[in-house]
Amino acid sequence: MTESGDSDVIVVGGGPAGLSAGLFASKNGLETTVFDADGTWMHKAHLFNYLGVGSVGGSEFMATARQQVDDFGVDRRQGEEVTGIESTGDGFVVETADGSYDARYVVLATGANRDLAESLGCDFDGDVVDVGVDMETSVENAYATGAMVRPEEWQAAISVGDGAAAALNILSKERGEHFHDFDTPGDAEAVFGDLVDDE
Prior knowledge:
Blueprint: E1 3-12, H1 16-27, E2 32-36, E3 46-47, E4 56-57, H2 58-71, E5 75-78, E6 82-87, E7 92-96, E8 100-108, H3 115-120, E9 124-125, E10 128-129, E11 142-144, H4 156-175, H5 185-198
Parallel strand pairs: 1-2, 1-8, 2-5, 8-11
Antiparallel strand pairs: 3-4, 6-7, 7-8, 9-10
């Protein structure tokens, strides 16, 4: 097994929660890796209830979301499944069949599959991973999001919010003060102008 690299944040799961966490973390300067095994329920969904989106197929939504995180510099490992996570005291080692990765923070976004959270030693509240409003688990610097922390609340909009909350709380912890990611039309022009120039 090879040592494959270091990140500030590793996100396990490439559904709405994981991609949202990856987007917010990477957009704001944290080296971010997302492991996306493509097990999301979104491929069976059609969104009519996602605020701001009139109607979109789940797979189309995911394609747009993946392109967005790629554009913001996330190292997205499509199809590379995480097999284990270990806390090292000053971070985490994430294992896959392809390598070993180090990170200071980990965000779990594996839907209703809570096996990695259990093996990491996260506390549970009944059947779900126990988190505070900041999405942090009982394991310091390990966050959990979406369906793994909410019984029967399997909504894309909720999961996206959980992922964003986890990333913003990591950014707040890193900076020692509350961090807000609030963009203006001028920011969008600068960002999208750069993206168009790069093409």
